[in-house]
Amino acid sequence: MKKTNKFIGLSCLLLVCFFTSRAWGWTIENFTSEITLGNDSTLTVNEHITVDFQLESKHGIYRDIPVRYKRGAVNYNLRLKVISVTDGDETDHPYETSRKGAYTSIKIGDPSRYVRGIQTYNVSYQVKRGINYFDDHDELYWNVTGDEWDVTIGEAKALIYLPDEIDQKEVTWKSFTGPRGSTSSEARVYWEGSRLVATLDNIGPREGLTIVVSIPKGHLIQPGIFLRILWLVQDNGFFLVPVIVFVLMFLLWFTRGRNPKVERSIMVKYRPPPELTPSEAGTLMDERADLTDITAMAIDLAVRGYMKIRQTTSTKLLFLSKKDYYFTLLKKDYASDRDLKKHELSFLMGIFESGKTEVALSSLKNKFHLHLPSIRNSLYQGLTRNGYFSGRPDKMRKAYMGFGMALIIGGIFLTRSFGRLDLMISFPLSGAIVIAFSFIMPRLSVKGVLMLYELLGLKEFINRAEKDRLERLSKEDPTVFDRVLPYAMVMGVADEWAEAFKDLYREPPGWYESSAWPVTGFYTALLVADLGEGLRTMGATFSSSPSRTSAASGGSGFSGGFSGGG
After folding, report:
1. Could you identify which of 212, 303, 304, 496 might form a hypothetical disulfide with 482, taking C-beta atoms 3.0 to 4.6 angstroms apart as the criterion?
2. The pTM is what?
């Protein structure tokens, strides 16, 4: 008796479960998709979805169509436009479209009305960018049903209409069925008149049907290159970052980096500006305190009587030269000299440190570089404080360069983290743009531009110096060659200055002595050539630092799987 009661109870439970599931579950009875491919590569899709809600009350359904895919490391988005949504009587259905991750979601149904039983939904839409183009064929890779449905599909059918001129014998196809990533091919695919048909029955939840059709080349028109680039940029928004960065940097340069305009032309100047030393002049002209500006300081201080430079031969090489140079201090109280500017004082203290009065250039190797930062700092600080720059050019360059490097490093880090090509390209390229602009962002003030015009006027005079005028200037000021020479050096026109004075300057200067002159005699070209070699050696020596050592211990759908969504 007890066994009979248990059997009856179990049977009742099973019957309740069966009828409950039938009453409250819903299914897709039929999913038919008509896909028409035009010669312009546009797909027109008409889906006929018959669902059975049974006894369950629903407003309608969601049709989620996959539109975002991956092509290597870049996003590839389809362009989908809904044309209409109707019921089985071709009456318009209320619907809303939205973007849901990788899907365009179509919400179909009246939110104020419930439906039950069998319902038909006809969804029509157009798709651009749904064709893959290869060298030897074009390809329609279409996810017919999607694989995001939580219910079963009794029957799925795809009716594919290709352009009439395509020979069916040249068309090949392949299908993928099952869950996402499946390589199964359970669908029947066959020609039915002029259309290609793919059918599949009894599709489980989260499963679907995908069809891949290979079409011979020459029938489909590929979108133009500019449209494809536009789509690529739209799909991968970070590709726009370099464009935006370039525009922003250009606007910054145009408004804050470009030198102000002044209503003045460049006029020839016959004397150096008394307000600026040669080092300051060179720094102002190219907006950076380089080694040429610093080494020219040695010549200028020698010309002004603070020290004497003596060139000698040496048995040892000093940066590929067998010449050494001795600096002899002539003004031992230079530290209290008010005529010296801060950068000049730092230079002299760097050479004659510890109270020395005579120093060989070779002895400064790997030592003088410690004084370069303070000399450069004094040059930038003095010019900025005196109103020639709107801001310190070195700090401005460093700020922009630092930001550019941060973009490059950030792009590398993001690429390694997310593996996205748009990040790998856009951030380093944006950083390179910022770094490139950093060189032209330092800005002269109005006072600085006016001084620049004076220096360009002096350079113009040196370039086209007339013999008669030079003779008059030499009579008025016998030191004119010596005083202008350091300026000509920082301007890169020292050879022209020496050539102009070859018949006027015949006695060796008191501030410089060469071991070659007793043999070769003296002439200005030899002086400038000797100084040029000396400045190169000085520059290499001044910037040299001890070497540091370190140790170290020791594709196409025809070859891919099923892809799709609901």
Report:
1. 303
2. 0.63
